Amino acid sequence: LENLFYIFIFCTGLFADVYKKFFPLFRIFFQILIVFFFIKLFNLMIKDVRIDFINSILSKESISLIFTAFCIIVLINGSNFIDGVNLSTISYYLLVLLIILILSENNYFIADLYFIKIQIFLLFILIFFNFRNYVYLGDGGVYLVSFITSAVVINFINNNTIISPYFAVLLLWYPCFENLFSIIRRLFTNKNTYHADNYHLHHLIYLFFLRKNILYPSNITGLLIFSFNFIILTLGYKFYNETKYLLLLIVFSVILYCCCYFYLRRLLVNK
Fold it and tell me: Do residues 45 and 61 touch, judged by C-beta distance below 8 A?
């Protein structure tokens, strides 16, 4: 039954790839329907954020359902935003799943290791061909891999309460923040929040390398972003149950993102 939802979410992205006039609001509508029914059917709700006041609110099923759906929708669309250069999305989710796999095996945490290993294997194949410009995820692939990973991460946190829920936030911070930052940025510049643009961080890094005549700027940009996230998520791995350190890593990542973004934006665009 899970596979049916994976097909639905993939087809939503596939329609966006094939039919360019597939209106973004319709796309969001179908995403919400799929995600809501998936969460409800498989009881995949976020219930603990380690803040008593918020936990009391999330104890109401309807609120938890809406909150979880919102988080997954933000992740799915944020993942589409970061998929502008080679390796970016594939390597990110490969890293997330590898960390969950290693953490689970080293600490005997509850996780569907067989399923996770299959996803890792498939992503390794995709990343090889993506590196050589033979394969691209497209909206369908991005929606699918981010949707699957969101379910893996939520289940992992719910089944292992010793792990801080902020470990999940750290694992998925980049696409989520990219989405929220892009929406705020477009609102401040009076641009449509659902129209694509080339002012995401990875686009600016790519443009910087392109102007410096760096070979393979798309691959280099993807590797650079991966390297940063590898460092951050590896540090988070060591503090998976230490909320204060996880929050510090999240805040540091967000601040560094903003600093790099505004520096490159001023350097490359606002001349």
Answer: yes
Give the pLDDT of residue 193: 61
Residue 189 has pLDDT above 90, yes or no: no
Distance CA 77, CA 33 (A): 15
pLDDT higher than threshold 80 for residue 23:
no
Structure tokens at 250: 């999240």
First-to-final CA distance of the chain: 53
Tokens representing residue 155 in the block = 């289940």
DSSP 135-183: ---HHHHHHHHHHHHHHHHHHHHHH-TTS-HHHHHHHTHHHHHHHHHHH
Nearest to 30 by CA among 65, 61, 76, 63: 76
- CA dist 38 and 55 (Å) reads 22
Nearest to 244 by CA among 176, 167, 171, 173: 167
Compute the chain's Rg from CA coordinates.
18
Cβ–Cβ < 8 Å for 116, 101: yes
Which among 170, 174, 143 has a CA at the least distance from the CA of 156? 170
Residue 20 predicted with pLDDT over 80: no
In whole angstroms, give the CA distance from residue 93 to residue 73: 16
Phi/psi zone of residue 189: left (φ > 0), alpha (ψ -120 to 50 degrees), beta? Answer: alpha
Count Cα neighbours of 173 within 13 Å in the Cβ-side half-sphere: 25
pLDDT in tens, 83-127: 888 888 999 999 999 999 999 999 999 999 999 999 999 999 999
In the block, which residue shows the tokens 């002012």?
Answer: 199
* Token pair of 108 as six digits: 């005997």
Provide DSSP, 51-95. Answer: -HHHHHHHTSHHHHHHHHHHHHHHHHHHHHHHTTSTTHHHHHHHH
